[in-house]
Amino acid sequence: MFNFDNTYAQLPEKFFASASALTIPKPRLLKFNHEFAEQLGVQTLDSSDELASIFSGQTILKGSQPIALAYAGHQFGHFVPKLGDGRAILLGEIVGRNKQRYDIQLKGAGRTPFSRGGDGRCPLGPAIREYIISEAMYALGVPTTRALALVTTGDFVHRNSALPGAVFTRVASSHIRIGTFEYFALQGDNEAVKILADYAIDRHYPQAKSDANPYLAFFKEVICAQTTLITKWMSLGFIHGVMNTDNTSISGETIDYGPCAFMDEFNFQQVFSSIDYHGRYSYSNQAAIILWNLSRLGDCLVPLVDSDSKKAITVLEEELSAAHNKIESNFVMEIAAKIGIERPEMKDETLVTTWLQYLQTQKYDYTLSFRELATLVSTKSVNRFFEKTSQFNDFLDMWRIRIKEQTTDDTQEKMNNVNPVFIPRNHQVERAITQAINNDFSVFEELNQVLQNPYKEQSEFSLYKQAPQANEKITATFCGT
């Protein structure tokens, strides 16, 4: 099924530990992503029983070298020196049709040497959440890990109550995290940091090798990937929820969909994670946090960037300072494009700020507001969606003047191409989970179908674009480990 071509398992043993999946009583294939499998060049099997056995770890395919990866991490700002894959097993690597290398990983397949007293299991709910949201993010055009398969285990996982168990198969361009670098750097193992950096450069940023200072070039590449990612998140109203350094990938992909959520009502300070008591990972704080996380990567790279630590720190800090400005400009450009500005400039910052402040004041649905604004491009009247306050009138006057400056006549179409109709709304994801726990997967299937085309009106599925009613609102999401 897979033509494994493993490279991470060839690194020194301290980078990982061998692992094996827990024996489960009755694996059943709930979902297999045939379209993605085709993109990967995976030869699929006809038997769902065989697929269930493979994607629960019961059948180990030829060439697979199951391992759990070692890493550390700053969790809510506090350093934890040894985390690692506590409930994830990397089956191996494959090279897809596009010549890109991918990790095939099981989540929830049982204990590993890094489980730290945990059972290594995954309840069905979090597995469904990750499947839905990771595939939705891909369709929205956001760099992300992907979902390949979802298997139910036929037994229960015990948390606050007994919940159906599941194993989720995640595909990533790698699982190297900032926390992986921290794991070795904080031990003073500079040799391992260099091995890891060389490996990451070869795998993700080979262009850095030809630079006069390849490790500084690597740092700049990671900065670019992560700052682009975070501004894309924010343009869509997405909140990750646990932006720890162990959840920040070197590749610039969104990874680890735990207590994540898309905003309904716009709020700069919005928090969904049930464990984020002080708003560290709120919507608007994500930009500052990614810079903080990147500075932790910079700490690890100091010995590689220059033998003179002061010189190394100076150049690394210069890159972080530039990244701060880049995030601000990226965000303005993203939102400006969403409100129809053809060639966004930093002068559009006032227009962007006025628009977002209006949304927050009115507590408007973030996603729907942009689609409604697009309807005003071709008409002078204002629909009933918007409250005609002085704040809105100020924005509307500025916006229409700015739109008239453009030579294009397809502004509305371009707005609709970057503003989704459908997002994985929290209340619909929770509905899919609740029904699945009761062995009804119809909402899960339908929601996945709808979210494959998020920018297209699908009148037959209009239920999924609607904002939640007061009694449907989700105010907290959970990690699910």
Description:
- Helix content is 40%, strand content 13%.
- It has helices spanning 34-40, 48-54, 124-140, 178-185, 190-204, 214-235, 286-305, 309-338, 349-362, 366-374, 390-404, 411-418, 426-437, 442-451, and strands at 16-18, 28-32, 67-69, 73-75, 78-80, 88-95, 101-107, 122-123, 146-158, 162-172, 238-239, 261-262.
- The strands form four sheets. Strands 2, 6, 7, 8, 9 and 10 form a six-stranded antiparallel β-sheet that branches.
- Strand 9 and strand 10 form a beta hairpin.
- It is globular and about 65 Å long.
- The model has no long low-confidence stretch (mean pLDDT 95).
Global shape: globular
> Can you summarize the main beta sheet?
6 strands, antiparallel
> What is the number of beta strands?
12
**Unreliable runs, pLDDT <50, ≥5 residues?**
none
The radius of gyration is 23 Å
What proportion strand?
5-15%
N-to-C CA distance: 29 Å
User: How do the helices and strands follow one another from N- to C-terminus?
Assistant: EEHHEEEEEEHEEHHHEEHHHHHHHH
Structural class given helices, strands, pairing?
Answer: alpha+beta
Task: Kindly state the percentage of residues in helix.
Answer: 40-55%
The averaged pLDDT comes out at 95
Helix run count: 14
Any chance you could write out the topology, listing elements then pairs?
Blueprint: E1 16-18, E2 28-32, H1 34-40, H2 48-54, E3 67-69, E4 73-75, E5 78-80, E6 88-95, E7 101-107, E8 122-123, H3 124-140, E9 146-158, E10 162-172, H4 178-185, H5 190-204, H6 214-235, E11 238-239, E12 261-262, H7 286-305, H8 309-338, H9 349-362, H10 366-374, H11 390-404, H12 411-418, H13 426-437, H14 442-451
Antiparallel strand pairs: 1-3, 2-9, 4-5, 6-7, 7-10, 8-10, 9-10, 11-12
Helix pairs in contact: 3-13, 3-14, 4-5, 4-7, 5-7, 6-7, 6-8, 7-8, 9-11, 13-14
